[in-house]
Fold this protein.
Amino acid sequence: MPTRRERANAIRALAMDAVQRAKSGHPGAPMGMADIAEVLWRDHMRHDPAAPDWADRDRFVLSNGHGSMLLYALLHLTGYDVPLQALKDFRQLHARTAGHPEYGELPGIETTTGPLGQGFTNAVGMALAEKILAARFNRDGFDVVDHRTWVFLGDGCLMEGISHEAASFAGTHRLGKLICFYDDNGISIDGKVAGWFTDDTPKRFEAYGWHVVPDVDGHDADAIAAAVHQALADGRPSLLCCKTEIGFGAPNKAGTAGAHGAPLGDEEIALARKQLGWPHAPFDIPDAIRAEWDARRQGGQRRAEWLGLFDGYRQAHPDLAAAFERAQAGDLPAELDAALLEFARSSQRDRVAIASRQASKAALDIIGPKLPELLGGSADLTGSNGTLWKGATMVTPDTPDAHYIYWGVREFGMTAACNGIALHGGLIPFGGTFLTFQDYARNAVRLAALMGVRNILVYTHDSLALGEDGPTHQPVEHLAVLRMTPGLHTWRPCDQVETAFAWRAALARRRAPTALILSRQKLACPERTDAQVELIARGGYVLLDAVGPPACVIVATGSEVEIAVAAAKAMNQDGSAVRVVSIPCLEMFLQQDAAYREQVLPPNVPRLVVEAAHPAPWWRIAGDRGRVLGVDRFGLSGPGDEVMAEYGFTAENVAEVARELI
Amino acid sequence: MPTRRERANAIRALAMDAVQRAKSGHPGAPMGMADIAEVLWRDHMRHDPAAPDWADRDRFVLSNGHGSMLLYALLHLTGYDVPLQALKDFRQLHARTAGHPEYGELPGIETTTGPLGQGFTNAVGMALAEKILAARFNRDGFDVVDHRTWVFLGDGCLMEGISHEAASFAGTHRLGKLICFYDDNGISIDGKVAGWFTDDTPKRFEAYGWHVVPDVDGHDADAIAAAVHQALADGRPSLLCCKTEIGFGAPNKAGTAGAHGAPLGDEEIALARKQLGWPHAPFDIPDAIRAEWDARRQGGQRRAEWLGLFDGYRQAHPDLAAAFERAQAGDLPAELDAALLEFARSSQRDRVAIASRQASKAALDIIGPKLPELLGGSADLTGSNGTLWKGATMVTPDTPDAHYIYWGVREFGMTAACNGIALHGGLIPFGGTFLTFQDYARNAVRLAALMGVRNILVYTHDSLALGEDGPTHQPVEHLAVLRMTPGLHTWRPCDQVETAFAWRAALARRRAPTALILSRQKLACPERTDAQVELIARGGYVLLDAVGPPACVIVATGSEVEIAVAAAKAMNQDGSAVRVVSIPCLEMFLQQDAAYREQVLPPNVPRLVVEAAHPAPWWRIAGDRGRVLGVDRFGLSGPGDEVMAEYGFTAENVAEVARELI
C-alpha cells in the first residue's frame, strides 16, 4: 500500500511537471503543502467529486492561489472531471487550468484566488453562511447543513491587511467550522520573510479569539492529523501553523524563493524525483496511488447518506425543505418581483421625494420580509447607508439565524466575505458603505465581477453633494471605475421609483454583481406615465420630452436628473425643444437594441450629459458635438448644495451649457 | 491657574460649539480625547507654531480625522495662524477648516485624514523617515534629526486592514519614536463595538513587537502622563490604550454613538457646559486659559536652539548640512537631470530593447547613486518590479541608513507609508507592485493626489501581455482609474528612452504623485531623431510620420507602440499615409498648447487609439470618427503574446481596423 508520503509525492510530481511543461507557474507551495493536503483530503474532506455542487459539501479554499497546481492535482486525483490532459495544458490559452484557480473553470474550484488574503476572507464568508443556514434550517435529527470550510494560506495572505479584517470578524463570530492551515515556510517572493514579517502570528490570532495550534510539523502526517483533531474539537475558528519547506523535495531550491514562482528546471526536477523516491515519468501516476486518492466511492456514499437525510427532512419539514432548495438554486420567491413593481408604481403615484439611500431602505422594507435569504449589512454605516430594514435582526455569535451583519469598519473584508457568502449559496448578500470607500474594497469588487457572483454593493453618499465631509469623502472617479469593471452593472437611480427598479435588477442578476449608487440628499420624484415607469428596466429612457423633435438631449443620472429636468423645463418654456433622458444604468441601456437606443438618443441631436462624477464613461455618449458636465477635480468641504453649485450643477448652468450646444 | 481639565475643556467647548454652528461634524472624538491632547500638546509636543515647516518638529497625526475640530482647536490655541474666525467657519465652503483635516489648508496639518487607518500608516512612514534621516545625518553632538511622531487613532482605524500592515511593519522596524494613543471609547458609528470588534488589541500589538500600555484612564492626566513616560523610555513603537468616553461632558450623549457624528444640539450643549463647569460663551476662551495653551514662546525657543545646533553642524559638516537642506527643500541634485537626458539619448543611440520594467531598473541605476534621498521599495515583488538598483542596500531595524525597503505583501501599507515619508520631507519614496494590485492601495493613491505629494508609484506587469498569471493579475480598468485621479500623472513608456523621460518627469513633480506603468515583456526601441527624443517630455509626439498629410493617425502607448509602428509601416508600404503618435503621458500631452496638440493630432484626420486597457480614457481622443482598440472584458491565462493576439493586439489587426477608418 502506498505510504502517505508517496500519495503526497503524486501532488509534488504533478505540480513540478506541469509547471515545467508550461514554462511558468509556482511549484513551491504545492510541494510544500502536499503532506498537509494529503491528510486533509484523504481523511477529512467531505465531498463528492461527481457532485461538486452538493450543498452540504465541505468547502476548500486555496487562498495562496498561485499554488493552483496543488488544487488541480487534488481535483484530478480525487476524481473530479479534470482529466490529465487539463494538467498538461496548465496555463495554456483557453485551458481550464489557468495560472490561478478561476471559479467556474473547473469543478471543485470554490472561489477565484490569487489576489492574496481574499480567499481566506471568502472562506470566512462561507463559514458564516454555513453557520447561519445551519441555525436556520437544521432541526432535531436533521442536520442538513453541517459542513466545514478548510483554508490553505501563506505568508502573503497573512501580511495583507484584509487578513486582519477577516480574522477579527471570524473570531468575533466564533466560526468554529473554519479551519485554516498556515503554510509557514518562511519564504516570500523577496526571500526570507524574517526581514519584513516578524509577527508572532499565533499570538495575533489568539488576540482575535481563535484557537491556534502553533509549531505543527507540516511534513509529519501524524502531527498534522493531531492538529486537525484539536481543531475539530474546538468551538473557535482554528489556525494550524504548519512549518513547511517551500519546494519540499527539490534538493537545491527547497527552502528558497527560487522554488516559489518559476519552473524548477529539468535538472532539479530529476534530482527531486531521486530525493522523493518518485521514479515515475512526468504525469504518470501509478494505479495503486491513483486508487488511494480516488474519492468518488466514499464521496458518493456520503452524499447518498445526505440525500437520504434530506428526503426525511423534506417529509418532516416540507416548507423548510422547499425554502432551502429554492434558495440553494438561487431562485427568487415568486411574489417578490410583483411586489417590487407595485412598490415602484405606488412610489410614482405618491411622488415620494426622499434621498435615494432612504428610498433604498424603503425598498428593503418590501424585499426583506419576502426574501429570507437576504443577508444585509454595512461597514459601520448602517444608519447612513439605510441598509437595515424593518424587523431585520442582527447576526451574533449566539443568534446566527438573523439577517443583518454589523461588519465593523471593514469594507474590504465585508465585500470579500460577501463574495464568499454568495459563492457558498443559499444566501444573497449585500453590504453598504460610502461610495468613496469602494476604494478600500476595490479588488473584491473586481473579483465579484470576474467570478460572476450575486453580491450587491450598496454605495451611498454618491457625489460632491454629500457636502461637509469634504474631498476625502466625495467620490469623483468611483462611478467610472465601477462602470469599467467588466460584468458589473451600476445603477444610479434618480428617485424612489428608479431605486425600486435598481433593486429589482440587482436581485434578478443571479450570476453577477450590481452596484447601487445612492444619494445622501433628498431627491424629487419626476412625473412619469405608466409606460415610462416600465421603461426604467431598460436602463435608460426618455423622461421628459420636447414638443416635436428635440434640438438637444440632456442625459442625466441620479441626483442630476432633477437639475436636468428643471433646466429643460425652463428652456422649453423659452421655446427650445429639449429632451431629458434618464440613464440610471448605462450598461443595461447599452444592451438594448439599436432601434431603442436611437429612439432615446436620436443620432443627430447634440447631447449634454450631466453627472457629478468623472466624465470619462460618457464621452462616447456625448460625442464630438456634445458635452459632459462632470467633475475632474477633487471636491470641497461645504454644504452640499453650495458645493454642487460651485461645480456647475445647477439648473441655470445646465441650461446655459445646453444652449451652447443648440 | 487653570487646571488641566479646564484647559482640556477649552477644546471640548470649541469642538461642540463649532460643530453646532456648522450644523454638522463630529464632536465626540475631540471631547473624548481632549484630556489626552492636553497632556501631549502641553507637555511633550516639540513644535513651533510660527514655523510649521521646521524640519525637526514633532509630527502629530489625527488618524481619526473626523475629529478635525480637536486638531483645529489645538492649532488655534497653541498659536498657529488659525484665527478664531476659521473655527467659526468650520465646514463652510472655501473655509480652511474643512470637515476633515486637509493637508495644505492650515499650517500644522501634517496629513489629510478621514479615510480610516491611513493617518496611522502615514505616521509609520514619517517615523521611518525620521529614523533613516537620523541615522544618515546625525553626528556626534549633532542630533539634528531627533523628533517623535504622535498619533491619535480610534476603533475605526484599528478595524481597518491597513492598521495590520502598518503596525506589523512598524514593529519589524522597531520605530521607537512612534507613539500612538488609542481612543478606546468602545463606540463606533453603529453603536457599541462589542458586537463587531472584540480583538484583544493590546495582545495583538504585542504580537507585532510593540510596547503596549493597556488600560490607561484617558481622562486622568496623571495616568496619561505616566503612560507617555513609559513610551518615551521604550525602544519599540508604543500603543497607549486609553479608555475614554466619547463626547465626554455631554450628560445625555456621552458614551453613545449619538455623540459621534452630529451636533449635540443646543440643549445638550448647555447641559454639557454645566457639567464641565465651562460657563463661557461659544468661542469665548478666557485669557488665562489662552495664555496656558500658547506654545509660541516655548516653541520659538526650542526651534532657536535647534537652529543654533544646525549652525554648528553646518560648520562641522558642511557637506552633510547642504545635502540635508537640499533634500528638505525638495530640490534635486543639479547633475541628475542631465544624466537622465544623456541616459535617454544613449538608450536611443543603442536602440536598447528590453522590458520597460528593466528599463526602469536601468534608469534607477543612474538615478540612485546621484539621488541619496531616493527611498525605493516593493511590496514583495522586488525582482519582478525591477525596483532594486545596483548598490542599493536594505533598510533594516539595525541599518536604517539605507535606500531600499522590503515592504512585504502590503500594497496599501506601502503606499500610505510612502505618502507619510513624502510628507515628512527629506526623502523621495517610490514603491512597486503589479498594476492590478494598485486596487489594494487605491485610496492611498487617491490621497497622494489629493495631498499633492511626491510619491512615485511603480506598476509593472501592465496588461494582458503578462500572460499566464491570468485575469486576476491582468489589469483592465486600472490605467483608466489612474488617469481619472485628479492631479496624478500616469506614464506608460514604450521603451527605455520614454522610460527615462518618465522617471525624469516623476522626480521633477515636486508636489504631485506620478504612476509609472511598465511592461513585463520585452519592447523594441523605435527609431527617433534627436528632436523626437526631446518631444517625449511633452507627453505625446509624432513618432512615425507618413509621407505627406496623414490619412489616419494611430495613437498608442507602451507595448502597443511597437504594434502600431509595425502596422503603420506595413500600411505606408501599401500606399496608405499613416502616422503613429506615441502618448506616454496623456495628462502631460493635454497640458500642451492647442497648436502643438493639433500639430500632433490634426483635427480632421481619423484616429485609432491602441492600448491594451479599458478604452474610456481615449474616447474623446478618438472622437466620433475614430476608434479605440482596447479591452473591456477580463483577460485570460496563457502565453502573453497569444493572449494579446486573442484580444486583437497584433500589427495585422491594427492595420485592418485602421484601414476601416480611412
Notes: The mean pLDDT of chain A is 98. Chain A has 27 helices and 18 strands.
